[in-house]
Amino acid sequence: RRLDHAIVGLLGVYDDVTETRRAQEEMLLASMVYESSSEAMMVTDADGNIITINPAFTKMTGYALEEVVGKSPRVLRSGQHDQAFYEAMWHSINSTGGWQGEVLDKRKNGDIYPKWLTINTAFNPDGTPHRRVALFSDISEQKKSEKLIWRQANLDTLTGLPNRRMFHANLAQEIRKAHRGNQQLALLYIDLDQFKEINDALGHDKGDLLLVEAARRLKSCVRDSDTVARLGGDEFTIILSPLEGGTRGTDRIAQAILKRMTAPFTLGEEMAYVSASIGVTLYPDDATQLEPLLKNADQAMYASKKQGRNRYSYFTKAMDEAAHARLRTNQDLRVALAENQFWIAYQPIVTLASGRTHKAEALIRWQHPTRGLVGPNEFIPIAEETGIIIDIGNWVFQEAATQLERWRNAHAPDFQISVNKSPAQFLNSGTVTQDWLHLMRDMSFPRAGIVIEITEGLLLHAAPIVAEKLMKFRDEGMDIAIDDFGTGYSSLAYLTKFDIDYLKIDQAFVRNLAHSGKDRALCEAIIVMAHKLGIKVIAEGVETAEQRDLLLASGCDYGQGYFFSRPIAAADFEHFMGWADKA
Ligand code: C2E
Ligand code: MG
Ligand code: MG
What we know:
Layout: H1 3-13, H2 19-34, E1 40-45, E2 50-53, H3 55-61, H4 65-68, H5 83-96, E3 99-106, E4 112-123, E5 129-138, H6 140-154, H7 164-181, E6 185-193, H8 195-202, H9 204-220, E7 227-232, E8 235-240, H10 246-262, E9 265-267, E10 270-272, E11 275-283, H11 290-306, E12 311-314, H12 317-338, E13 342-351, E14 357-368, E15 372-374, H13 376-386, H14 389-410, E16 416-420, H15 423-428, H16 436-439, E17 450-455, H17 456-460, H18 464-476, E18 479-485, H19 492-497, E19 502-505, H20 507-511, H21 517-532, E20 536-539, H22 545-554, E21 558-559, E22 568-569, H23 570-577
Parallel strand pairs: 11-12, 14-16, 16-17, 17-18, 18-19, 19-20, 20-21
Antiparallel strand pairs: 1-2, 1-5, 3-4, 4-5, 6-8, 6-11, 7-8, 9-10, 13-14, 13-21, 13-22, 14-15
Helix pairs in contact: 8-9, 12-13
The structure holds ligand C2E and magnesium ion (2 copies).
């Protein structure tokens, strides 16, 4: 971009010619150079009166030569800059001869537009200013695309809210402000409950509508100065800064959000209902840095989910410790599979009438190198959250199926093993063919040797993929058992719908069988109804002969519990069965 210097040079060459002729020559030369230029040009005399312009000037500003010649460039001013702006410009021109920068000017039609302006001066031999040359280009398009780029980088396209990136920048800034002003700040982490289900059921378009409306509702719960951002999916954050009224302020806002979110969402023809789980953390009380604040808010949100959703929780130190323990377990789980730290315990399932055993439940055990034996209740939920349950579940299945094949071949051709399958495995394990059926492809025994234990909840929230997989297992001849029956919704309607084979009465009912008439009546009712539906009943947690007798009298088919045997290693199980000597 040396054109401006060229024209300044040209102007300087003609110093010795008479004023008028010189001006004409200048104009001629200037127009020759700038006639076809897309850059606008304007030449003024030392007093700042316009001498000439080029066609690009006319095209950009709307002014023809005769309209501006002899006038001051002030006609171009937009009024968008203050006096100080022009003073600084002139200070630079007077001291260095030049200036360059961005200016907002006005076209003849009144439009205001941004331009990039360069001003240079041609000096007389005595050093006084002779001419000034202004070159400028319209940068509105460039500005527009810069703005677009900025929007794309900082705003969420769906909701128009700040995105994760801008949220981080805002939070960092608000933390600095709060620090300087010695003020409190609250960070809220909001996750919608049941959003995934709505998205799956009604489609992504409706899901998008819901998110836009949710964003609008969130904004309506806070001041304009507070930041509401979307981190992605159905996760939002709010920065309340400065926080006024301490936790009373956050209580009020969190309650308002919960209330607004539970109001029905109208999505085209459909109505949908969601709720929100919120986590709250405070600066500087809980943490003073960005990352810990984010982590705290996330942990508190997680606590709200755990406690049943549609609620808000403040971050506490205990949450942090629990999260650490989860993290440690999760890390340990990753090595556990590779290092063979898992083994399977088998617990006999006894036919009550005959006292004989033809079934066992496979229960995973974790021999942790430092913690010792860790029970599944401690690590299965964590494995479910992180998805590693898929690998663990597949390992259990493979192991149990291999064991079953051996036992059926060597000792009991009709033996059955039941394996627990958590909902997470149904929802996340990809296609049916990659699943357990695939693992069994080379095994010789009939598929009916395997019983899959699922919980009631799975049927209740049955997504199409769940039903599809259950049917597939069914078609292959596997049996299906409902675990922990009675603790959830206990809907017998689902049992018929999915063609269930076994129902396992939860140990909570069996425990009080001898002492509570109510539990006994309930057990009996379950047994009678299950039998009517062609379903066999297994009682869990049978610990005494009395319980066994009551169950038998009630018509219960099978019993499982410490009374018969604890879950034991495969070798011990063979002893229990009396197979060991024969082997
Ligand atoms: P569950 O499927 O209901 O298994 C029965 C649980 O009751 C087992 O606990 C068993 O040891 C215990 N139990 C059996 N008889 C008695 C008794 O007479 N009294 C008492 N108090 N308890 C008895 P465990 O082995 O700790 O397993 C807990 C849960 O972990 C299981 O409950 C199951 O939901 C889950 N789990 C176990 N193994 C697996 C697995 O391989 N995959 C999955 N996804 N979950 C598993
Ligand atoms: Mg079970
Ligand atoms: Mg159970």
